[in-house]
Specification:
Mean pLDDT: 81
Low-confidence stretches: 176-188, 276-284, 368-372
Order of helices and strands: EHEHHEHEHEHHEEEHEEHHEEEHEEH
Largest sheet: 5 strands, parallel
Structural class: alpha/beta
Strand content: 15-25%
Distance between the termini: 45 Å
């Protein structure tokens, strides 16, 4: 169904040595739109010279970009690594001129500097020295972020983009859809996904949320339920955005220092009371795979994760491998189920090598009755 939305243009500024970061910014803006545009009635439109400029004569190239692209943008995202860029008539580089012009207009700018290692022979010393000088000049004019890998950049930008949109582009009450009898999840303050995640955290006594990073991808776990398949980028972005929304609104907070475990705040419990009449609290739920794995382990109470030289890792339960040998997708499926059971404290590792797991008392009580 069509819906009206405010469109905000996001200009991407950078020299030519960070193409992967430029592409990551575009993808994350698109993912933000998938998740938030309908609820917030806002769309973030990525803008760059390589996609939006057209051939024109009669003026300096940078002046054309400034006039036809930059001046209509609402947010600027700039990324640097080892280069400052090519000089213009007004500034040390085109990217720097874009930043200065944008800031001069009173609009928000997000700057990122990479600290990732670089091959010395590939670094232009004059370019790097100029970049270093520019970065130092930024220290007294605001805040910028540093990152040490592409994954680190994605994680920081994804989180900070959500913060900046909430701060710079607040939604009006009129722009948010009113709840209806057939749409229990729609809330004035929270998106559908954030409401669901909040209720899932609270569905278990002393419930909490975990952000899990693994070789298979990142996932969100909340009180007995893994919210996403870590290998599904859209699903992962959906629940990561819901997590960020809860954190930014002060409904959850980091219970430690490593940003892995989060618990409800007093404000979070108050919000639950506000939405309880519109939202059916979710029961503690295990995925079907986790239920099946737990059920198969009920006989001897053991699960093993062994490495086979020819077939890779095997998840062994009841004396045989449950995953299809040599199939990475099958291994990921059952490995996720094993991790889910461990995080729910239904199984616990035996020894430091984490190759054997035993079903806990809590696990035996949680064995689904329909699993033989």
């Amino acid at each position: 169904m069509p819906y009206r939305a405010d469109v905000y243009n996001v200009f991407i500024a950078s020299p030519g040595d960070v193409p992967k970061e430029r592409e990551a910014v575009r993808k994350m803006l698109v993912e933000w739109n998938y998740i938030h545009s309908r609820d917030r009635k806002q769309v973030l439109m990525p803008v760059g010279w390589e996609t939006h400029s057209t051939p024109q004569m009669g003026n300096h190239p940078q002046d054309i970009i400034n006039k036809h692209l930059l001046k209509d943008c609402d947010l600027l995202v700039a990324v640097f690594w080892t280069r400052i860029g090519s000089p213009t008539e007004k500034a040390i580089s085109g990217s720097v001129e874009e930043i200065e012009e944008h800031i001069k207009s009173g609009k928000p700018a997000m700057l990122y500097f990479s600290s990732a290692p670089a091959v010395l022979d590939s670094v232009d010393r004059k370019q790097y020295d100029a970049l270093k000088k520019f970065r130092e000049s930024c220290q007294s004019r605001g805040l910028y972020a540093s990152y040490d890998s592409l994954e680190d950049f994605r994680e920081k930008f994804n989180r900070q983009l959500a913060q900046e949109v909430i701060r710079a582009f607040p939604t009006s009450p009129e722009s948010i859809s009113a709840p209806t009898a057939s749409d229990k999840l729609a809330q004035p303050a929270l998106s559908r996904n954030a409401s669901e995640l909040l209720c899932q955290i609270a569905s278990m006594e002393n419930g909490y949320l975990l952000r899990i990073k693994s070789d298979l991808g990142n996932s969100i776990w909340a009180s007995g339920r893994t919210m996403n398949n870590p290998q599904d980028s859209r699903e992962r972005a959906k629940w990561e955005a819901a997590f960020q929304e809860l954190e930014q609104l002060g409904l959850i907070e980091d219970s430690g220092t490593d940003r892995k475990k989060f618990e409800l705040t007093e404000k979070g419990f108050e919000e639950l009371a506000n939405i309880s009449h519109n939202f059916d609290t979710l029961p503690v739920a295990l995925s079907q795979d986790a239920q099946e794995l737990l059920g198969k382990a009920s006989n001897d109470g053991r699960i093993y994760r062994n490495f086979d030289m020819h077939n890779g890792y095997k998840i062994i339960v009841g004396g045989s491998a449950i995953n299809e040998l040599g199939n990475a997708r099958s291994l990921a499926r059952w490995d996720n189920a094993l991790v889910e059971l461990e995080l729910a404290e239904l199984i616990s590792a035996v020894g430091d090598k984490r190759q054997a797991f035993q079903v806990t008392d809590k696990g035996f009580k949680a064995i689904p009755p329909n699993i033989e």
